[in-house]
Please model this.
Amino acid sequence: MKHILLGVSGGIAAYKAAELVRLLRKQGCEVQVVMTESAMQFISPLTFQALSGHPVHTELLNADAENAMSHINLARWADVLLIAPATANTLAKCSHGLADDLLSTLYLAAQCPVYVAPAMNQAMWHKTVTQANIATLKTHGVIIIDPEAGEQACGESGIGRMAEPASICAQLLAEPVTQYLHGVRVLISAGSTREPLDPVRYITNRSSGKMGYALAKAAVKAGATVTLVSGPVNLAAPDSVELLRVETAAEMYAAVMANTQNCDIYIGAAAVADYSPTMQPQKIKKHASQSTIILQKTKDILASVANLDLPPFTLGFAAETHDLEAYAQKKLQEKNLDMIAANWVGREQGGFDSEQNALQVFWATGQKTLAMIDKTQLAEQLMLLCAERFNEKNTI
Ligand code: PMT
Model:
């Protein structure tokens, strides 16, 4: 049975911690609760005592404990320390090593994995000092369960609400991911490219970068060293990734080619422009009733990587509105790829800029369908499939 030590600090989300205790116990965990003084202003220790079946710990020095040191005993007992909700103050104390109450002292004494689920007003969450504290805690190996966006108890709206108890519970009890790409270097392209027509206009496409960024996160989670070459997107840089920002297809080509020597796997998830105009130095004026743009073919980045003398394992994408399998197989062979992930685009669900997608993956000796699912999970399934083929190729 897993021993979960739950630290509750003083925020309105403390009431959600009660549901968390119930869910964890339902999953067969034994839970003991530690509350800060301000947490007790929001919810009574009696609630947690009733739900956990244990007395609640609130004092740093406990005269009733055998050695008066309940923090050491509790830290030894815990398989996991979870702080939920973690206020800005508690995060700051933990990141700086302050130990002026039972919970902050437990954080220092704990030798088990530590999870924190922050909860606070959106402005407090975005404050540079809070983000610096979060970054420090990550370097200490603390796992942050990100707060969610939405309406807040203070009446404002934004990121800062504690993650839902069911989601915290799922993250806490998830099987540890095996580092199946440990020591492998993965280079990924993501997003669209912008091909300028003049100083104010460009040609682009609907790629949001979500698929490529999800793949980068999945590769990091699997233990890979990841370089992400990204076109213009509206996404935050993934943690622990070397991010190279580019704009045009030519810039993406240069950035990818400059990094192929340091990579074992290349994944071309970007929607690269196939054609590019010659940029006019001045804004194109409106005169005639029709206008023609001459486009030049761009260099094919994926094919260039796959046809290097010593190519990495190459996984390409194919975005098709019709004849999916035929076009995907053609690209697999003509570009000399190891694998290709084909997706229907232009349908209501999936493809460009959606949260979900489905893929039909082909390689020389097989194929697999990955059903419509969230891009985060789809990326994890695809990364595993890619690693299997990569390992197979390297052992032949
Ligand atoms: O970014 P999202 O909104 O999450 O959407 C994800 C996606 C639909 C963009 C992604 O899953 C996808 O399908 N990416 C490839 C889109 C594409 O350009 O497909 P294509 O069939 O035109 O190109 C085939 C392959 O050649 C791709 O791997 C592409 O990166 C590569 N290519 C194309 C042209 C070029 N000049 N250089 C290339 O490397």
Residues 191, 207-212, 249, 268-272, 274, 298, 300-302, 316-319, 331, 343, 345, 351-353 surround PMT (CB under 6 Å). Residues 114 and 141 are 8 Å apart (CA to CA). Residues 185-393 form a domain with the Rossmann fold fold (CATH 3.40.50.10300). The mean pLDDT is 93.
